[in-house]
Every structure is written in structure tokens, then in C-alpha cells.
Design brief:
288 residues, mainly alpha, two-stranded antiparallel sheet, 2 strands
Length: 288
């Protein structure tokens, strides 16, 4: 059984709020993604792609699980800073705020560029309301993926499982797509990511709902089932803000047209929600 360490958590939180992300040269998430190149071998056979993708996930998880366990066995004076370094790499509170705050601009092309940095969809033809919608959707979904989920697994199972979650989520973001290249290669990563985010996504939606319960839960009950996980925090956020969220041709959550003021409101709700999540998990860590 692996237990969370409140000192490690608080130190990692302070580092994140003060410094943001680690440089890419030393960022564990970057190195998690680099292992993809070793297994992404072209093949027309679906079973070969499936095998390679499963092997990638297994090896990547195994390597980082071993690193995190080994770190915890070092003398405390060495273990503490390394654990802080690794745990901080699993969540991104400041970075998410920074990226979304760049969308607070009246110039459409600047908004388009800023939005393209935080979403995977093609934003080249989106108008301003749809760009704002995409930014707010990303903010709500990533509150679950980049804040709630890693802290949830750290609280329950300690550093090794927070690291494993980050590996799975990273690979899902890189290869978990329904297209000819990644349909089978990323299938296991995508399905495991769905399973691991099942509870955190619903916790995040519930935290968002604190700020306007009736509107949030009305939206959740109406749209939450449209995607297995992401729709829960997204629909709750849409309900709290009272704006529509739309990915053209895929889904639309009803509401008024989103404006730039909603980016400000969304960021304020994000800060308050992160505070609630941090307090909740801090209390649970102390109890454990």
C-alpha cells in the first residue's frame, strides 16, 4: 500500500503555483511521450498495431512506476525533492490558467492562436463565440484531467499511481484517436484513460456545481451522458456559466452565446474549484 505525503503534496503545489511547468528538457511528461517513437512502427495489420500500442502502454507505465517506487526508497533528504519533482509533473494548475487566460483578447486571430494551443480541433474557421467555447470546454475538461484526477490517485494510492495516471492520460492525448493511424495503436490507452477518469470527471462536475447547483445539475442530467467522462465537467461548467458549448457536428450544450467576459468568469470559477479540490484532498490525505 502506498500512502500520500502531505508535505510532498504541499511542496509540489507551491512549486506549481510559483513556477508552473518544468522545462521540457527535464519534464517527465515529455519523456513519457517520447517512448511512443520506439513502438510506433508502421504496419497495415490491426493486430500488430494493437500489440505495439499495448506494449507501449505497459512499458511506459512500468518504467515510471518503477522510478516512483525507487524514489520512495531513497534516504529522505534525497527522496523528498525527487518526489516533489515527480508529483508536480502530474498536475498543472498554473499552466492551465495561463494558457486559457491568453484567450482574453479582442483580436480574433490572437484568440484563434491561443485557442489552438489548448485544443486539438481545427480552429482555422471558427468564429469568436466558437473559439471562446472551445477555450472554456478545454478549461473545464482539463480541470478534471490535469488537477482532480492526478490528485485523486495520489490521495488514494500515493505517488506511483499518480504517475501511472499521468502516463495513461498522456498517451491517450497523443494516440487515443479514432483514425486510420491510431485506431488500434491507441485503443488500450484510450479505454484505460476512460476508466481512470470515470470518478474524477464526476467529482469535478460536482465541484463546479457548487457555484450554481440547479443550472449545473440540469445541464449535467441533460448532456452528461453524451461523452463517457468529459461531458460531465463540461456540461456542469456550461450550466454554471449559462452559455452554450459547441463542437460543430459533434455536440451542443444549450445556453446563451459565450463572450469574452465568460472567459474571466470561467477562470474565477476554475480558481475557486481548484481551491475546493485541494482542500478536499488535503483533508483526505491527513485522514489517511
Amino acid at each position: 500500500m502506498f500512502y500520500p505525503n502531505v508535505q510532498v503534496f504541499l511542496a509540489a503545489l507551491i512549486v506549481d503555483l510559483l513556477l508552473g511547468e518544468w522545462p521540457s528538457q527535464i519534464h517527465p511528461v515529455v519523456w513519457m511521450g517520447k517512448m511512443t517513437k520506439l513502438f510506433d512502427i508502421p504496419s497495415g495489420k490491426s493486430w500488430v498495431r494493437f500489440f505495439l500500442g499495448t506494449s507501449l502502454l505497459t512499458c511506459d507505465m512500468g518504467v515510471w512506476f518503477f522510478i516512483s517506487i525507487s524514489t520512495m526508497k531513497l534516504p529522505w533528504i534525497l527522496s523528498l525533492p525527487i518526489q516533489v519533482f515527480l508529483l508536480k509533473s502530474t498536475f498543472s494548475i498554473r499552466s492551465l490558467y495561463t494558457h486559457v487566460s491568453r484567450c482574453k483578447t479582442s483580436k480574433t486571430e490572437k484568440l484563434r492562436y491561443a485557442t489552438s494551443m489548448i485544443v486539438s480541433r481545427d480552429v482555422s474557421r471558427l468564429d469568436k463565440p466558437h473559439l471562446i467555447s472551445a477555450a472554456l470546454e478545454s478549461l473545464s475538461e482539463n480541470t478534471s484531467d490535469s488537477v482532480t484526477a492526478p490528485l485523486f490517485y495520489y490521495t488514494l494510492f500515493g505517488l506511483p499511481f499518480a504517475i501511472v495516471y499521468r502516463v495513461v492520460n498522456t498517451l491517450d492525448a497523443m494516440i487515443g484517436y479514432h483514425d486510420t493511424k491510431y485506431e488500434y495503436f491507441g485503443k488500450v490507452s484510450a479505454r484505460l484513460d476512460d476508466a481512470l477518469n470515470f470518478i474524477p470527471s464526476r467529482i469535478t462536475a460536482t465541484v463546479f456545481a457548487i457555484f450554481s447547483p440547479l443550472k449545473a445539475f440540469r445541464s449535467i442530467f441533460k448532456y452528461g451522458s453524451s461523452k463517457i467522462n468529459a461531458a460531465y465537467p463540461m456540461s456542469a461548467f456550461s450550466g454554471v456559466l449559462g452559455v452554450w458549448f459547441e463542437k460543430i457536428g459533434v455536440y451542443r450544450f444549450e445556453g446563451r452565446k459565450p463572450t469574452m467576459k465568460d472567459v474571466d468568469r470561467g477562470l474565477k470559477i476554475y480558481i475557486l474549484s481548484c481551491t475546493v479540490v485541494i482542500l478536499l484532498f488535503s483533508i483526505l490525505m491527513v485522514v489517511r
